Every structure is written in C-alpha cells, then in structure tokens.
Amino acid sequence: MIIILKAQSEQTIIDAVAARIRELGLTPHISQGEYRTIIGAIGEEQPHLVEYLEEIPGVERVIPIMKPYKLASRDFHPDDSVYSIGDTMIGEGYVTVMAGPCAIENEEMLMEVGKAVKSAGASVLRGGAFKPRTSPYSFQGLGIEGLRIVRQVSHALKIPVITEVMDPREVDMVVEFADIIQIGARNMQNYNLLQEVGRARKPVFLKRGLAAPIKEWLMSAEYILSAGNERVILCERGIRTFSDETRFTLEIAAIPIIKEVSHLPVFVDPSHAAGRRDLVPALTMAAIAAGADGVMIEVHNCPDKARCDGPQAMFPETFAELTGSIRRLAEIMGKKMSPVG
Ligand code: PEP
Ligand code: MN
User: Fold this and answer.
1) Counting C-beta atoms within 10 Å of the first and last residue's C-beta, which end of the chain has fewer, N or C?
2) 3-state class of 196 per DSSP?
3) Domain with 11 in it: what CATH number?
4) What pLDDT score was predicted for residue 35?
5) 3-class SS of residue 203
C-alpha cells in the first residue's frame, strides 16, 4: 500500500506512521518529495487495512498497489530516479555511456581502452573479472586479479567502474572494488544473489534475463529494492526469439513500457543484443530515441584478439564517432551527457 501524508508533514508524524506500519508486520519505505512524503507499506497486500491506515493522524490517503512490484513502481515513486556516482549521473535528464571490454585481460589493455572511452565521453568503464560463459572451457575471467586491475585503472583514470558478480559469496569482495555491481542476464532470477546485492551499498545494474518477461524482470528489481538497496538500474540486452541474424533480439518497446510503470533508470546493451559491431550504432541511437537513460557498449583496442566477444566489440575510433552522435541526440531529447570526474 502507498500512504500519502498530508503536505509538509513533520518528522514526528512520519515516524508515528512508520511505527504503526511496523506494528502491522509490514516494512515502511519512506520517499520524501519536495512537498509530500509517501510511505510504502511493503509486505503482503492487505486491502482491508486501507481504512484503518487512513484513520492515522497526518495521513491523507491510502492507495493499495495492485501491481506485484511495489518499490519499483511509479505509484510508489512518481518521479524518475536519478543517482550520482562521483560526477557521473544516471537517470532523469542524463544520457550515460558505459563502455569497455567484455573481459579484463590485463592492466595495459584496460588502461588503453579506459583512456579511449573516457576521452570519447563514456562516464563509466566496464570490464568483467568473473565471466558467465556458455562453455566451461572458455576464458572465465581473471577473477580477483581482474578486480584489482579494474580498481587501479579506475583510480588512475578517475572514472567509476562496473563489473559483474555471479556468486552470492563474492558480493562483499566485488563491492570493495566496483562502483556499480552488475547482475548478468543469466543470474536475473538468482534470488539469493539478488538479496545479497540488495544489502550492498552500491548501485546494481540488473540485466534482463535471456527469456524473461518484463514483469519478472521488475520482480527481480523488487528483490533488490526490498532488501534495502534503492539504487537499481535496469538493462535491456536482448531476448531469445526465432530471429537468428542477431545474437538476441533487442526489445526496444521495453524502454517506454518500463518508463510508464517504473521510476528506475533503463539502459540498453546493444553489443550483446546484436552480437555484431556493425549493428551497434543503429541500436544505440534507437535506444536513446526511445527514451533509454544510457547504453553499455563493448569496446576493445584489438577486437580480433579479444578473449571474449570480439565480433561485437567496437574499435575505439568508431566508438568515438558514435558518442558524437549520442551527444547530438541527447541534446535533441532535452538531456545532457553525464559528466565524468
Ligand atoms: C556482460 O555484460 O559481460 C554479459 C555477460 O552480458 P549478459 O549478462 O547480458 O549476457
Ligand atoms: Mn560480453
């Protein structure tokens, strides 16, 4: 349920309402707007409590949320969310470009790619240390050594970094090295992992499962939000369909659909969706034109020698041309490119 307090409620009223919600076995989540405070009473929906809650002094209105996701819904949080990570901005009003290699292969290459993508306008550097590979014989990433490298490069170049965590037991460790934690498509429904990153104090980038309907994806975001982490970013990265010209099928409609029902920032990963670098610019522009808050793009200094996902990695030069186009489109959309420290 959503409890809307009377305009300019004092803290004592907010505390009293929150205490009553706890007495009912529900968890209060407080969202303080400029004029009004909205409290989400999160737990099993109990419509018979509406009248009871409306009696509490200071409460203006109580609305049951019929959607299965609550904290992710726009009913609970009407304004678009925006997060800052250092100087990097994610969400409302910004277009944010995350870029870098699929996997961290060594320090030199990450430094080279990091410099190139930052100077082209990317404000988050990506790089996988733990790689979810289809074959157990493929390169699985450098692990902890990769985490050390990504932190070092982040520090040297003054750019925040995103990297994937695959195992709930490794969340505490990855959090130490990363500015944004990535949950890969294959783990979108690993609920133990979602709860664990829900307890982390770093934003979570939640990729859509390979065959996940939008509602299930939002329920996965709800797992993270309900565990206490308010900073979730969604990423559409293509889904499985019968079409086999591309690696996956990018569902552009997912962007406006989510924007209507949720306040969470929505990104697109055109690289994994296409599986081919030549299609990345077109999918990127389509995503931003459809309202995406940003993109995640794979870039490699030498894609032919990449240990992972070479065919979809852009060359630094063509990536720089693409960010020029992104900048122009962002302006048309009334947005700014995110700054970077
Ligand atoms: C990745 O971003 O490195 C990745 C493996 O993507 P996905 O989980 O979307 O396949
Ligand atoms: Mn990849």
Assistant:
1) C
2) helix
3) 3.30.70.1140
4) 83
5) coil
